[in-house]
Amino acid sequence: MKFGQMSLKKISDKADYLQLDICGLSLEEAIERYNSYGKNIPIILHGDWYKKVNGIYQNEDNLKLRASEYKKIICELKKHTEVLGITIHPPKRKKYSIEEIISVCEDIKSVGVDVFIENRSDSRLNISNPLEVIELSNKHIMTIDIPQLYIACGYNKETFLDTLNSINWSNVQELHLSNVKNKRVAVKLECGELDYIKILKIIQSKAKKSFLYNF
Predict the structure, then answer these.
(1) Out of 45, 136, 143, 178, which could bridge 116 as a Cys pair, Cβ 3.0 to 4.6 Å?
(2) Distance CA 149, CA 142 (A)
(3) SS3 sequence, the chain?
């Protein structure tokens, strides 16, 4: 079992890896961001999503164009540290089919890293309802974001637990348990509404494997 943390200014001495946020970053900027930590630590890259970077809004809809840049970033970062994988955020339904997303992920994978597809909660985006998450878990390796999954289940605990029990956990490589930067998705952990001990017991009983846990 390994624990990771988000791209905060200081790396915890408890962290086994860093989720390096490369949303909207060029090759040079991504390398600079990693070097700014001054520590040799394994990383999982966190790809583009809707976010303001350097005064410009980025989004996941440029996935095909960004794939070549991701590959360059991965190859260069491999010279500095161990790249455990990259998490891809599915773009809007009207822009990409799920098959197209998987095809782009296979292209990125060609440089020798695992490519995880993360579940979403905005209905305009792919992989944002429980059935889609379950179906994709049978097709491709994934990052499962627990708070986002709960939101996608309409905050319905029964639907949420049914979904957890139906996911093919052998294809899940990383779990996002909380987001300390985003109170909208972190509040469910902080207020105790989600029983994380119960959740992890369900997951471990289904998966019988170790995960990368990210906070």
Answers:
(1) 143
(2) 13
(3) CEEEECCCCCCCCCCCEEEEECCCCCHHHHHHHHHCCCCCCCEEEECCCCEEECCEEECHHHHHHHHHHHHHHHHHHCCCCCEEEEEECCCECCCCCHHHHHHHHHHHHCCCCCEEEECCCCCCECCCCHHHHHHHHCCCCEEEEHHHHHHHCCCCHHHHHHHHHHCCHHHEEEEECCCCCCHHHHHHHHCCCCCHHHHHHHHHHHHCCCCEEEC
Q: Is the pLDDT at 171 greater than 80, yes or no?
A: yes
pLDDT at 39: 86
pLDDT, one tens digit per residue, over 35-73 is 998 889 999 999 998 765 666 556 677 899 999 999 999
Task: Look up the CATH number of the domain holding residue 64.
Answer: 3.20.20.150
Domain that holds residue 18: 2-214
Q: What is the pLDDT of residues 138-164, one digit of tens each?
A: 999 999 999 899 999 998 999 999 999
